[in-house]
Design a protein that fits this description.
Layout: H1 20-25, H2 54-57, H3 60-76, H4 78-92, E1 97-100, H5 105-122, H6 124-138, E2 140-147, E3 157-162, E4 180-181, E5 184-186, E6 192-198, E7 218-222, E8 226-230, H7 248-270, E9 274-276, E10 309-311, H8 322-335, H9 341-345, H10 353-390, H11 399-402, E11 411-414, H12 423-435, H13 441-447, H14 452-468, H15 476-479
Antiparallel strand pairs: 1-11, 2-3, 2-8, 4-5, 5-6, 6-7, 9-10
Length: about 500
């Protein structure tokens, strides 16, 4: 019989005094860790280490400072702007595509087509890219599911983006409860029930140009009408911090270093020539006035005072290790985003084929993880809200789907595929996998971000039309039964 954990019997304490031998057997062994020692050398390094809770460490003031600095860096640093844009473009691409997996093909096609039309009407792909950029530089992004009667389609659901600054509770109205964290109310299970969204951005200005401070008025929006995109890096974390946070000091160092190198080079270039002497201190060169300045004419000959020479200031900037320092800083910056150096720098000149593919494997794996997170935390709530509006439109969806539970509607999301650096090698490797039955058409098309059923139907139309017109086209003979073996020596070394 298994006992519940609260009823587990505890060993009784012995009333007899333990002997010396037993006392030695129960003696506690204490281990020491070098990292736990505090010395005069590391005291200053660990001075800011604390044991704050996730929400206390990412307090409203801390998040506000990090957001402002990250936005400033992205707005003024070309590398930071390029990194954030590349991350958003690689993650979202041209936008996700819905594939329904119910047993009714007609219903699947109807839902997919209607949802894709609505996505184009509201510009969902562009808004997802904006949300991905906001998560990198602001730590989080919010979207309100509301109605927009000006949309061209029948479904008037709108996705309105809101910055993290606007989701907060004014200090004078903050509830004294543990179930609310800076603009978000939770139930006892940890589910967000309401969001406090300011009616005006706290950084907005009035018509007179004065800083408004948000006004303190906010809307209490139900939790199922708000989409919150952020990455919880600690258990119990309620709000996000910018993904660029560890790299902010590095961006500042890189900008200061480049400005210092440029200033040193300009300073050296500002001095066309310098007058100097090799005479000893007690020598007798002709006297000249110190720091005197005179202009030189082009292609002229001149005489100098006795004992003096004319020379140029030696230009030592940029130094020979300037490029390596910039690469090192950029590689460290990109690491917190799981981005390889060549993607962050936009330069693959020092890469070979193998190292480039190896770096991209880690990067694309992180992209796939991010896409899965966005699908669950953003796309599924939006799709659920769209279905709730679409079932109210007559003749838009099948009758049985109007009463179906959302959890029973199997579906998946497709994203843009990653282009292979060697298409010929990838095509032959794909043919080998298909012929050996180690993959499926669904998997191969999914890698390219396409629906296998749609592609096969399109291919069938093309083949039928080619045969009808009596034309010949590459691949038709193979589809009729002729198998073409992969080109020797073109096997793929590893998956890209």
């Amino acid at each position: 019989m298994l006992l519940p954990w609260k009823s587990t019997p505890r060993p009784r304490k012995s009333k007899t005094k333990p002997s010396a031998a037993s006392d030695r057997s129960y003696r506690v062994v204490r281990a020491r860790f070098d990292a736990a020692q505090t010395t005069d050398e590391n005291r200053r390094h660990w001075a800011n280490a604390d044991l704050l809770s996730p929400d206390a460490a990412a307090s409203m003031d801390v998040r506000s400072i990090l957001r402002s600095r990250a936005r400033y860096e992205v707005a003024n640093n070309s590398y930071a702007r390029g990194i954030v844009l590349t991350l958003a473009n690689d993650t979202i691409g041209t936008g996700p595509r819905l594939q329904m997996l119910t047993a009714d093909p007609a219903a699947n096609a109807a839902v997919e087509q209607a949802f894709m039309r609505w996505m184009r009407d509201v510009g969902l792909a562009e808004k997802l890219r904006t949300m991905r950029m906001a998560r990198a530089e602001s730590g989080e992004a919010f979207a309100i599911l509301t109605r927009n009667p000006n949309l061209p389609g029948n479904v008037q659901l709108e996705v309105r983006l809101v910055e993290a600054d606007q989701v907060t509770t004014p200090p004078s109205r903050r509830p004294f409860t543990d179930d609310a964290v800076d603009g978000i109310e939770y139930d006892r299970f940890g589910n967000p029930t309401h969001y406090h969204i300011l009616k005006q951005h706290p950084g907005a200005s009035t018509l007179m140009g004065a800083y408004s401070g948000g006004g303190g008025e906010y809307d209490r929006v139900p939790g199922d009408s708000v989409v919150h995109l952020y990455r919880a890096e600690r258990p119990g974390q309620s709000r996000g911090i910018p993904e660029l946070t560890p790299a902010l000091p590095l961006f500042a160092q890189l900008r200061r270093y480049r400005l210092a190198v440029l200033a040193a080079a300009e300073t050296a270039a500002d001095f066309a020539l310098a007058l100097y002497t090799d005479a000893p201190p007690n020598g007798e060169p002709d006297p000249v006035e110190a720091m005197d300045v005179f202009e030189l004419e082009a292609r002229m000959a001149t005489t100098l005072p006795q004992g003096w020479k004319l020379g140029q200031v030696k230009a030592e900037h940029p130094s020979t290790n300037h490029v390596e320092f910039v690469k090192s800083i950029l590689a460290e910056i990109a690491r917190c985003l799981n981005m390889p150096f060549n993607v962050a720098a936009g330069n693959s000149s020092g890469y070979n084929y193998a190292s480039g593919r190896l770096d991209h494997q880690t990067y694309y794996k992180a992209i796939r993880v991010d896409q899965s997170h966005i699908a669950m935390s953003v796309l599924d709530p939006i799709f659920r809200g769209w279905l709730n509006e679409a079932i109210l439109v007559s003749d838009l969806l099948p009758v049985w789907l109007r009463t179906a539970d959302f959890g029973a509607l199997e579906h998946q999301w497709f994203w843009d595929g990653n282009e292979h650096v060697d298409p010929a090698k990838e095509a032959n490797a794909q043919a080998t996998r298909l012929s050996s039955h180690t993959t499926t058409l669904a998997n191969e098309y999914a890698k390219q971000g396409r629906d296998w059923e749609t592609e096969l139907r399109q291919r069938a139309k093309e083949v039928a039309l080619v045969r009808e017109l009596g034309l010949t086209a590459p691949g038709i003979e193979e589809e009729q039964g002729t198998h073409v073996a992969p080109t020797p020596g073109m096997e793929e070394e590893d998956d890209a």
